[in-house]
Design a protein that fits this description.
By secondary structure, this protein is an alpha/beta fold. It has helices at about 10-25, 35-45, 60-70, 85-95, 110-135, 145-160, 175-185, 205-210, 225, 245-255, 280-285, 290-300, 315-330, 340-345, 355-365, 375-380, 395-400, 405-420, 425-435, 440-445; strands at about 5, 25-30, 50, 80, 100-105, 165-170, 195, 210-215, 220, 230-235, 255-260, 265-270, 270-275, 300-305, 450-455, 460. Bound molecules: adenosine-5'-triphosphate. Adenosine-5'-triphosphate binds near residues 173, 236 and 318.
Length: about 475
């Protein structure tokens, strides 16, 4: 792990540093020229590099090597060794991303302090990265319907290639999770998955966000393209990208290189591009809002993600998956789904697709006060959009002002009185309709302060 590459054209110096570091328990590799240095880097990236700026008889100087390392292995800390006369160059190297510099002739303690700090910083960064990777959402895709199996079949085929994929489907249908599935099952799984949210980046910032920036004051600030190097770049809602940025992106896809804003160097990255859209890009092209050439570049392998209404069979499976997830992440009750509730879910319209279902289940679990199966009443009507919302409960000002327990009590009272009236005070029929045992309904009415009195011979009746 603690393997240090020492690059200096002066043999005495590189061997001296090597000996000191070996004594301190590090393992070292030595390079006397830029060619030797590149060969070592290609063989295996070291944990840290000590790099002399002036390299006699070499093709590249220290700054060139630094730029290459920062481009290809940005995680390796580079400590620069500079001669007394070229502190300015050393400072410039820091701006290019070097960790620190030490001046020749150097003091051993100073060298060791710098190296220890650099190692700590890079270990920390590595730990953070691995945490981030753990945090990266797992691409769990649940389903067993023919439409779902068709989708997985297509995704499995494209994971093996490197082709650009265009995922088409309505909002919340699982396009991003499908893109993550491709990434996690491909040979890029250990490299980053970076999302470009085309709709939320302001047009004037999109180039800086994608390509990064470079200036003498702030050095190199890599953009998302560089951050995704080796992995997958996911363009979410690609139709929302401004036309000007579309041309720039097209050029990157054609040339395979780009320049950072304010920079002159050509940057080359190795990426797989996956895009998604909820609208028909052909319409966008016809309306002059999307560049046709970019469409053809991105749409090499089109994959349709079906809406939830085309895979209603998957609803119970998805519900138990989300119940499990909310149990594990929020400690919510692990409730089963009643057959009636499943039937209600399977007849709903789902304009928000799987995301809407997930939100509904979360709400039901938070509001529910039992561990029993989720009932039809709990799921019905509560998540329909306003325009077809004839069954939505409109919360009166009075209810909205109460805490949940009291609001629930007020609602139950109102609801049960309405039902009792509807059934002419017949408690058996009321109990049957509201889905409770007669004795349970009695208890409920009593607890709500609704009085029961003896009624007809055949059945008791109620007075409110
Ligand atoms: N097959 C599936 N199995 C389990 N969870 C899923 C599945 N499909 C989607 N989801 C979940 O549904 C939610 C929405 O999915 P996702 O963000 O991938 O949709 P999207 O199509 O990219 O949405 P948008 O177009 O709005 O960005 C996420 O929480 C995702 O994990």
């Amino acid at each position: 792990m603690s393997d240090i590459l020492i690059v200096d054209d002066e043999r005495d110096i590189r061997e001296l540093i090597g000996d000191i570091l070996e004594d301190e328990g590090y393992s070292t590799r030595l390079a006397g020229s830029s060619d030797e240095c590149m060969a070592e880097l290609n063989a295996a990236p070291p944990a840290l590099m000590i790099l002399d700026i002036w390299l006699k008889d070499s093709q590249m100087d220290g700054i060139d090597i630094l730029k290459t390392v920062k481009r290809d292995n940005p995680g390796i800390p580079v400590v620069i060794i500079s001669g007394h006369g070229n502190i300015e160059i050393a400072v410039a190297a820091i701006k290019q991303g070097a960790y620190d510099f030490i001046e020749k002739p150097f003091n051993i303690d100073q060298l060791l302090v710098v190296i220890r700090r650099a190692m700590e910083a890079s270990n920390l960064r590595r730990e953070n990265q691995s945490l981030k990777r753990v945090e990266q959402k797992a691409a769990v895709m649940i389903g067993d319907s023919p439409a779902f199996r068709g989708l997985i079949g297509q995704l499995d085929k494209v994971t093996r290639s490197n082709g650009r994929v265009m995922l088409t489907g309505p909002s919340g249908s699982g396009k991003e999770v499908a893109a993550r599935y491709i990434h996690q099952n491909s040979n890029r799984a250990d490299a980053p998955f970076v999302v470009v949210n085309c709709a939320s980046i302001e047009p004037e910032r999109i180039e800086a966000v994608l390509f990064g920036r470079e200036s003498t004051e702030r050095g190199i600030e890599p953009g998302l393209l560089e951050q995704a190097n080796g992995g997958v770049l996911y363009f979410d809602e690609v139709a929302d990208m401004p036309l000007g940025s579309q041309s720039k992106l097209l050029r990157v896809l054609v040339d395979q290189t780009f320049q950072r804003l304010g920079g002159t160097d050509k940057v080359r990255v190795d990426l797989r591009v996956i895009s998604s859209t909820g609208c028909d890009l052909k319409d966008e092209i016809a309306a002059g809002r999307f560049r046709e050439e970019l469409f053809h570049r991105l749409n090499v392998v089109p994959v349709q993600v079906p809406p939830l209404t085309e895979r209603r069979e998957d609803l119970p499976l998805l519900v138990s998956h989300f119940v499990e997830e909310f149990h594990n992440t929020q400690g919510l009750a692990k409730r089963a789904l009643s057959d009636e509730a499943a039937a209600v879910l399977q007849t709903m319209s789902w304009p928000g697709n799987v995301r809407q279902l997930r939100n509904l289940i979360e709400r039901v679990l938070i509001l529910g006060d039992s561990d029993g199966p989720i009932s039809a009443a709990e799921v019905s009507g509560s998540d329909r959009p306003a325009d077809e919302g004839e069954e939505r409960v409109v919360l009166s000002g009075v209810l909205a002002a109460l805490p949940l327990r009291e609001a629930r009590e007020a609602f139950e009272k109102e609801y049960l009185l309405t039902q009792i009236n509807r059934f002419g005070g017949n408690i058996s029929r009321t109990a049957q309709f509201v889905g409770m045992e007669r004795s349970a309904l009695h208890r409920k009415l009593k607890s709500l302060g609704i009085g029961a009195k003896a009624g007809s011979k055949s059945d008791e009746s109620i007075s409110a």
